[in-house]
Design goal:
single chain; mainly alpha; about 0% strand
Length: about 220
């Protein structure tokens, strides 16, 4: 290994150490409590060292969110690939949403603390309800693609498909948060709620009139 490659590896290891520390603090205390000082204390380095790797707190938060988001999207895409053999529109939508719910629940407190934050720097990464979100948020874009697979929605306008995807995402988010809050629910009840939600969303998509069709 060359001197340059070793330095690059060490740099990447330090970046990951900082991001992992930030993730733990966000999960345990909330994103508003995150600070350079707390990260430095946890990794036992001076605050000044952190600025050699990141511009500041907002830069760290952005990297944490981007890493988590990409991992989630990758998990959903893996589910899509596995479902190719049975790739009906209803099956694909159900499997994608199921994976989204399970990955979000697995993130636990970190997911909840990040997604419920109204901090403007955080919302730059987490907002999904704005017009044009399908192009800037992969999760919404993937939902739009799934909805296009339904024959009754194939010719609907992009705006109508996007609105539908945003509402579906929001309803899934609501279920995820309630499952996190009501964490003592029996596993059987949790699974029944998720299954019922998925069946309901697919039924709505299948019987959707596909209004707002492009001319």
């Amino acid at each position: 290994m060359t001197k340059e490659s070793r330095k690059e590896r060490e740099r990447e290891e330090m970046r990951n150490l900082i991001l992992e520390s930030a993730s733990r603090i966000i999960a345990e205390e909330g994103i508003d409590k995150l600070s350079i000082r707390k990260i430095a204390q946890e990794i036992e380095y001076s605050p000044g060292i952190i600025y050699h790797y990141f511009q500041g707190k907002e830069d760290i938060v952005g990297n944490v969110l981007q890493k988590g988001y990409q991992e989630m999207v990758s998990g959903i895409r893996l589910t899509e690939a596995e479902g190719q053999k049975e790739r009906t529109a209803g099956f694909q939508l159900k499997e994608s949403l199921k994976q989204f719910i399970r990955l979000s629940l697995a993130e636990g407190a970190q997911y909840r603390n990040v997604m419920l934050s109204d901090s403007e720097p955080v919302r730059k990464h987490t907002s999904v309800l704005f017009k044009g979100a399908a192009k800037e948020r992969q999760a919404i874009g993937m939902l739009c693609q799934s909805l296009r697979e339904f024959p009754n929605m194939k010719d609907s306008s992009d705006a109508y498909i996007e609105l539908t995807a945003q509402v579906i995402w929001s309803s899934a988010f609501g279920l995820i948060i309630r499952l996190m809050v009501e964490k003592d629910l029996p596993e059987e009840q949790r699974e029944a709620l998720i299954s019922h939600y998925l069946d309901g969303i697919v039924a709505i998509a299948e019987f959707n009139k596909g209004e707002g069709k492009d001319k």
